[in-house]
């Protein structure tokens, strides 16, 4: 990073002034809660280091985390934003970044991350995700995990707990299985509501997901999602009952899974065996 970039960023107006001048009041419809605490944005950026490839940020808003990522050494930062007010507010930061920051106006749910940045560079996603679309975004990125080096993401704490939950616990569910099947998952730290503007009603968690070189066990994601959706949809029932929509006892026998246990007692590899049995049955 050129020596003058940190100085140029430091000379930018405070984030609250950026919000005021741009009329960037948080919109509930966009799931906006702006993180303005520079200590916390810096902590997230440091957790994502090294930032030596293409860094992708979703929903930068007034640019608090964006500034932190640039100051932490991001050499190529692509911020995806659909709110045109925020895009206008970020223009001074683009100028201060010495060509390191690019803003793309797009809906993150429709984004193909494989077209962002040079193909030979690692891609990292670092973001304070809108709560209302966070799970959908993550499932989509897990399907593109071969193109990612890491994801350092903020969720509401309940989702963070589900991502790292172990079999046999009440938090273990569909999201636990899919994420742990494809990634090494670690919950890093929590962030209180009063760190945001406006404050959400829940505590947030920063979670890091590092894609595995190969998934934990053979399975197709779309079938694994279906299996977990069906089995956890009736999690209080024994598998012989909850599995009826996808083949019932016959499918479980093919996968070598007993029918007199509940879904939450299975491990990730067990769900993959059921998903593979379902794929073969349909083939």
Describe how the helices and strands are arranged.
Elements lengths: L3 H7 L4 H8 L11 E2 L2 H11 L5 E5 L5 H8 L4 E6 L2 H6 L1 H6 L4 E5 L17 E6 L5 H9 L7 E7 H8 L9 H9 E9 L4 E2 L6 E8 L9 H13 L5 H4 L5 H8 L12 H15 L1
Parallel strand pairs: 2-3, 2-5, 3-4, 5-6
Antiparallel strand pairs: 1-8, 6-9, 7-9
Could you explain how this protein is built, in words?
With 283 residues, this protein is α/β, with parallel strands linked by helices. The chain folds into two domains: 4-211, 3-Layer(aba) Sandwich (Rossmann fold); 221-282, Helicase, Ruva Protein, domain 3, CATH 1.10.8. It contains 13 helices and nine strands. It has helices at 4-10, 15-22, 38-48, 64-71, 84-89, 91-96, 134-142, 157-164, 174-182, 221-233, 239-242, 248-255, 268-282; strands spanning 34-35, 54-58, 76-81, 101-105, 123-128, 150-156, 183-191, 196-197, 204-211. The strands form two sheets. It has a seven-stranded mixed β-sheet with strand order 4-3-2-5-6-9-7. Strands 1-8 form a two-stranded antiparallel ribbon. Helix 4 (64-71) links the parallel strand 2 (54-58) and strand 3 (76-81). Helix 3 (38-48) crosses helix 4, helix 7 (134-142) packs parallel to helix 9 (174-182) and helix 8 (157-164) packs across helix 9. The longest helix has 15 residues, at 268-282. It is elongated. The relative contact order is 0.11. The mean pLDDT is 95.
């Amino acid at each position: 990073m050129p020596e003058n970039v940190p100085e140029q960023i430091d000379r930018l107006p405070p984030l609250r002034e950026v919000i005021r001048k741009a009329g960037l009041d948080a919109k509930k419809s966009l799931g906006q809660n702006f993180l303005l605490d520079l200590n916390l944005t810096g902590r997230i950026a440091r957790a994502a280091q090294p930032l030596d490839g293409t860094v992708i940020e979703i929903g930068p808003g007034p640019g608090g985390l964006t500034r932190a990522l640039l100051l932490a050494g991001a050499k190529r930062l692509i911020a995806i934003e659909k709110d045109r007010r925020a895009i206008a507010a970020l223009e001074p930061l683009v100028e201060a970044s010495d060509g390191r920051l690019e803003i793309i106006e797009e809906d993150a749910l429709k984004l193909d991350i494989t077209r962002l940045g040079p193909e030979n560079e690692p891609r990292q996603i670092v973001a304070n995700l809108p709560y209302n679309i966070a799970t959908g975004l993550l499932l989509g990125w897990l399907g593109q995990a071969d193109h990612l080096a890491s994801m350092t993401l903020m969720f509401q704490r309940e989702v963070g707990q589900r991502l790292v939950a172990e079999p046999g616990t009440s938090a273990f569910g569909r999201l636990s299985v899919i994420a742990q099947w494809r990634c090494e998952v670690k919950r890093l730290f929590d962030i209180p509501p009063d760190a945001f503007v406006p404050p959400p009603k829940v505590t947030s968690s920063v979670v890091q997901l590092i894609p595995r070189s190969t998934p934990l066990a053979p399975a197709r994601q779309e079938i694994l999602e279906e299996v977990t959706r069906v089995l956890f949809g009736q999690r209080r029932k024994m598998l012989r009952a909850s599995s009826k929509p996808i083949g019932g006892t016959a499918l479980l026998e093919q996968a070598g899974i007993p029918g007199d246990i509940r879904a939450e007692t299975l491990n990730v590899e067990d769900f993959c065996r059921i998903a593979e049995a379902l794929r073969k049955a349909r083939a």
